[in-house]
Amino acid sequence: xxxxxxxxxxxxxxxxxxxxxxxxxxxxxxxxxxxxxxxxxxxxxxxxxxxxxxxxxxxxxxxxxxxxxxxxxxxxxxxxxxxxxxxxxxxxxxxxxxxxxxxxxxxxxxxxxxxxxxxxxxxxxxxxxxxxxxxxxxxxxxxxxxxxxxxxxxxxxxxxxxxxxxxxxxxxxxxxxxxxxxxxxxxxxxxxxxxxxxxx
Amino acid sequence: xxxxxxxxxxxxxxxxxxxxxxxxxxxxxxxxxxxxxxxxxxxxxxxxxxxxxxxxxxxxxxxxxxxxxxxxxxxxxxxxxxxxxxxxxxxxxxxxxxxxxxxxxxxxxxxxxxxxxxxxxxxxxxxxxxxxxxxxxxxxxxxxxxxxxxxxxxxxxxxxxxxxxxxxxxxxxxxxxxxxxxxxxxxxxxxxxxxxxxxx
Lengths: 200, 200
Prior knowledge:
2 copies of one chain form a homodimer.
Chain A: H1 7-17, H2 24-35, H3 39-55, E1 57-58, E2 65-66, H4 72-75, E3 80-87, H5 90-99, E4 104-108, H6 126-135, E5 140-143, H7 149-162, E6 168-171, H8 187-195
Parallel strand pairs in A: 3-4, 3-5, 5-6
Antiparallel strand pairs in A: 1-2
Helix pairs in contact in A: 1-2
């Protein structure tokens, strides 16, 4: 922003620019937009920020973000507490819940192992997962990290820790996306689809 | 967001989604990002929102956003107060200031006449502009609204109000952008470039 702009506006734009995916131009536009909001709207926005950050914590069991000690999924006795789906972020839980098919519980790692970024296994919530295996009567752990280098490495690392404990460890299936076409499938996806083919 | 998400997070995402250009997916991502910020960072963000909104007001003269009664440009005696550049938004001032060429002052309309959206001439800061013409010794008013239907209409409307007052009213030049090519110029731009050709 040019130096003719009021300082509090510059400061606000810099705050917006710190958010992921928002560049300085968008941040400036958002700061100007805040000027056109009413006192009540701005207060509600500021309150929502402080309130979400101060009241939302990690679930004691699955590390999902929640207001209470336990998240609604871990509290739900109708869910299968013997099946744990291991995901990278709380967002991934929303994706699974939208399918309305999965009835087990989750475990959020809050990251993936990535030594190049300094994220060693002790930086993500692996020990919390291991402590659940002993406590609950866990039959199966589904590794649902993304099919990326870090996602695969993390899934491998955790499965090696879990197998000696006698737990069944599975991985999400990879193949052609439904509605996708062979023509546009990349080689790795197509190879996976071929490798994991099923009898019909 | 799925209903398994903590309510304060949903509320925060809804606040983000109210901002221009931020959809529900991005808003959700931003809300999750806030969770990973420190207490101090979140407080600084909330403070910047409240502070910018409560301390930044419109300049008494030119209606630009400023902290004081007068903006730094209107306060500056070295600027030519006899030339007023009329723009739609405070952002446009930053664009002109970046050229380092314009030495006059500004007037921010805070909108353009658009009857279809219910924006009649009395909804934007036209009367504030007219009151400046009498007070200061104004030689020239440069209409610098965007070359859109609303921008042109607003420029025309204001110029008709100003001409009887004996003020010179000018409009920004329209033509080929510098660095642009004839091949990619649209017809209207090319027509304007031809119409406003200059002797060399």
